[in-house]
Design goal:
Layout (H helix, E strand, L loop, with lengths): L2 H9 L4 E4 L5 E6 L3 E8 L2 E7 L1 E6 L2 E5 L3 E5 L3 E8 L6 E7 L2 H13 L15 E5 L2 H14 L2 H20 L5 H7 L4 H15 L6 H7 L4 H12 L3 H20 L3 H7 L5 H12 L3 H6 L1
Antiparallel strand pairs: 1-2, 2-9, 3-8, 4-7, 4-9, 5-6, 5-8, 7-10
Helix pairs in contact: 1-3, 2-5, 3-4, 5-6, 7-8
Length: about 290
């Protein structure tokens, strides 16, 4: 193991997502190969210490590993494949993006005339891959060291996360991260609509309402939404509802019809059909796992 992987392993004794001593920071461990399947990635920065993950989004395929960090500027439903084994588990540091921190850094960069002049709107999708640098690895290493101690995490953790954000903003693909902070960009407007969807997915959500929320025409909103998320607003909403339903079925052992209602479906039969089509298993089978 590398030094970074060793520190991650110490913070992730259990399979799956492990909390740390710092809010918004987790470490994921996966000790077996995971076949391609749907899941939802949260808004955040992901740094791999060991192993590899492959994402499938729309018609694109890309990997993130120890040489490539992944940044999700908005929460996105994707399909994911995991390359790992008992001998070499995949280890991933997961850091939430704090918009207050992001805005603070970008404001300081603007004061020092360090905002890139060529921020291209056409590249402002909901994610980007950033090649890791020596400076970025050093920042990750120091954060992982601090997370080993509750006191150090409390004293230095926030500053070290701030440093990681700064390193990512310095990467060549970071235009979507800047766009997230600038209120007039298409990405920041779509992010506002996505926040609404995640708060109200169990209710009736109309595309016209979302477009009005971000001061766009329905046609312009639909086009921008697809550019950022690789899904239409209706497709995105459906994926979020089904992903949340799977979490409820596995964690709370609720009845299928109750879960269907809770995530916004009026028909439990329609819910079951769409759930099976998306996850390749019935809601009942999922609940019994």
């Amino acid at each position: 193991m590398t030094d970074i992987a060793t520190l991650m392993a110490a913070l992730a004794p259990k399979e799956g997502v492990n909390p740390t001593h710092l809010a918004g920071v987790h470490v994921f461990r996966g000790s077996q190969y995971g076949a391609r399947g749907p899941m939802c990635y949260s808004q955040g920065m992901l740094f791999v210490g060991q192993g590899k993950k492959r994402l499938y989004l729309d018609e694109q395929t890309f990997d993130y590993d120890s040489q490539n960090a992944l940044v999700m500027t908005v929460p996105l439903p994707v399909e994911c494949e995991t390359f790992a084994s008992e001998q070499e588990p995949v280890l991933v540091l997961m850091v939430d993006i704090d918009l207050v921190q992001l805005n603070h850094i970008i404001r300081l960069m603007d004061e020092h005339n360090q905002i890139p002049k060529d921020l291209n709107e056409s590249r402002q999708s909901g994610y980007f891959v950033a090649p890791t640098t020596e400076e970025m690895d050093c920042s990750v290493f120091r954060l992982l060291q601090a997370l080993q101690s509750p006191l150090e995490a409390k004293v230095m953790g926030e500053a070290l996360v701030l440093e990681l954000l700064y390193r990512l903003l310095d990467s060549p693909n970071a235009a979507p991260l800047y766009a997230l902070s600038l209120s007039h960009t298409r990405l920041s407007r779509v992010e506002k609509a996505l926040s609404y969807i995640h708060r109200h997915y169990g209710e009736s959500v109309e595309v016209d309402t979302l477009a009005s929320l971000v001061n766009m025409s329905p046609s312009a909103f639909h086009r921008c939404f697809k550019e950022v998320t690789a899904s239409s607003p209706i497709q995105y909403l459906k994926k979020i509802r089904l992903t949340r339903a799977k979490e409820l079925l596995q964690a709370q052992r609720l009845k299928v019809k109750d879960v269907a209602i809770q995530v916004g479906y009026e028909s439990s039969a329609q819910f079951s059909r769409e759930f099976k089509r998306y996850f390749d298993q019935s809601p009942g089978d999922c609940a019994r796992q």
